[in-house]
Amino acid sequence: MASEADEGRIKVVVPVLEDCPLFELAVPCGVFGPDRRDLSPRWYDLTACQTGPEAHRASGGLFVQAQQGLEALAAADLVVVPACVMPSYRPPEELLDALRAAHERGARVAALCSGAFVLAAAGLLDDRSATTHWMYADELRRRHPRVRVDEHPLYIDEGDVLTSAGTAASLDLCLHIVRRDFGAAAAADVSRRMVIAPHREGGQAQYIPPASSRAEADGLAPVLDWARQQLHRPLTIAQLAERAGMSNRTFGRRFAEQVGTTPLKWLNRQRLARARELLETTDLTVDLVAERSGLGTASGLRQYFQRELATTPATYRRTFRRQAQ
Fold it and tell me: Are 151 and 134 in contact (CB under 8 A)?
């Protein structure tokens, strides 16, 4: 029974799957499990639950047993389904029914890596965009043709249903959820405590083996680091290519291969992230936030926020400055 101190907290439930890989099971427990009410009094309250009557086998010859059963999903605000063993795992109908009921009740449902197959089996990914580990993308398409599978992003947020790519991308999605719920400052604080990057750029394209056996050069990281320090300046593709010692054409191709997007889209994402950080952590005027993030004027910043986040800088600041305190 919840105590008064737990009232108002976001209730997270993690179903433990048979033969579950331990890393993807540990990720939501590590991100949402520790009591971090110093970041927000609404911080997550995590419960793991059984999906069958017996202790579940896990990777490495271990067994995992949770104290609660699937009834825990009835109180969840967020359900995080960890990875499952592919291609052998078949989710029990009781789990699929509980996931459908939680989603219909209004809970958000997230899947880590191959956990997307569980959501797909429940019908929660029908006619939605979803991602999974790039090695399993074709199998997900084959089994569930109504799912719009995209193996390129590290994660996809459809609002009430979220999916992540493989293994370490589970961390990216969980930190994204923290960022969405409590703001970038809180997500950055969690990442510092866990000694991980608060946000990784690009998508799975940088990890999928190329069709050619020729190894691609791995020299873009210094250019990206330099660009992040220059966001207040107008940057061109030519400047970035020159910094990388490449022609514009070679740089654009190499960037798409290693980062998974175009240089312009990457820069715009960096500038938006900088603007959000400044709004959350400083009292700078909207004009100065626009200038320091490289998004131009206050009017331009408002237009960009409306287009990308469906809100205004002032509303965003009021929301996330309050939640981060």
Answer: yes
pTM of the predicted structure, to 2 decimals: 0.71
Tokens of 13: 């439930």
Which long-range contacts does 36-40 make (Cβ < 8 Å, 24+ apart)? Answer: 36/189, 36/190, 36/193, 39/182, 39/186, 39/189, 39/190, 39/324, 40/182, 40/186, 40/323, 40/324, 40/325
Please name each of the domains of the chain with its CATH number.
4-194 (3.40.50.880), 220-325 (1.10.10.60)
Q: Are 114 and 86 in contact (CB under 8 A)?
A: yes
Q: Are 293 and 231 in contact (CB under 8 A)?
A: yes
pLDDT tens track for 54-77 = 898 888 889 999 999 999 999 999
Residue type, 57: R
Tell me the per-residue pLDDT of 218-274, one tens digit each, with 9 for 90 and over: 568 888 889 999 999 999 999 999 999 999 999 999 888 877 788 998 898 889 889
